[in-house]
Amino acid sequence: MPELRSAIDSLVAGGAAGTSGVSALLASLMIAAFIGLAVAWVYQRTHHGLSYSRGFTQSLVVLTMGATLLIFVIGDSLVTAFGLLGALAIVRFRNVLKDTRDTVFVFFSLVLGMAAGTQRYGIALVGGAALMSVVTYLHLVAFGSKTRFDGHVTYAVRRGASGGDEWKAALARIDVVLGRFCRGIEKMTSHDSDESVEVVSAIRLRDPDRGSEMVEYLRATPGVVEASLVLRDRYAEL
């Protein structure tokens, strides 16, 4: 009888430990999924260049969860760890990451997944938030870019036939329009003639997608003969 009771107690204890382990695994996977989705969303919103892949973005989520599951599988077993390393060494990945930034995101997905797998939830959440904040900041300020302007705007203002200063009022109205659409303006060249005044300015748009709208406003400004915008290639400097 004592032996039977001992066996039952051990089974109950093992079942409770198993239930606790499953609950911890589910909690870790949920947190890893949340962090992975956040990292993938930041990657998508801040990506620049020509190498964007929806599959890679989705892989960041799965990779974070996979790293968490890997930590649970290894546990405290050194034999299991070496076995998994040997199994992973057999796998051959044909997809070569062309962008260093993609490699960084893969690395941080693994690290955050491992943090969630070891149940260091605070480290995973705080580290993930810090990572995404820095990446978002670097994207917003265009850190590392050598070019401060998005392009050049050219506009010509008609001189009055009577030789008055109407063209100066037109230039003042143009400055108002440019200030509405641009957050940075630097006058490059100005050409005066008997019929018009032509100005070329380097600009940094508040919203690069509203460049054509700005040109329409310039052309509708009284006194403006013509206006055009030449945007710098966004992919010229990756």
How many beta-strand segments?
4
Series of secondary-structure elements, N-terminal to C-terminal:
HHHHHEHEEHE
Largest sheet: 4 strands, antiparallel
Provide the spatial order of strands within the biggest beta sheet.
Answer: 2-3-1-4
> How many distinct helices?
7
Q: Kindly state the percentage of residues in helix.
A: 55-70%
**Mean pLDDT across every amino acid position:** 78
The number of distinct structural domains comes to 2
Strand content: 15-25%
Account of the 3D structure:
With 238 residues, this protein is of the alpha+beta class. The protein has two domains: 2-140, no CATH class; 151-231, 2-Layer Sandwich (Alpha-Beta Plaits), CATH 3.30.70.260. The protein contains seven helices and four strands, in the order H-H-H-H-H-E-H-E-E-H-E. The chain has helices at residues 2-46, 54-74, 78-90, 100-117, 121-140, 166-181, 211-220; strands at residues 151-158, 182-192, 196-205, 224-231. It has a four-stranded antiparallel β-sheet with strand order 2-3-1-4, with helices on one face. A hairpin with a 3-residue loop joins strand 2 and strand 3. Helix 1 packs antiparallel against helix 4, helix 4 packs antiparallel against helix 5 (121-140) and helix 6 (166-181) packs antiparallel against helix 7. The longest helix is centred in the N-terminal third of the chain and has 45 residues, at 2-46. The N and C termini lie far apart (75 Å).
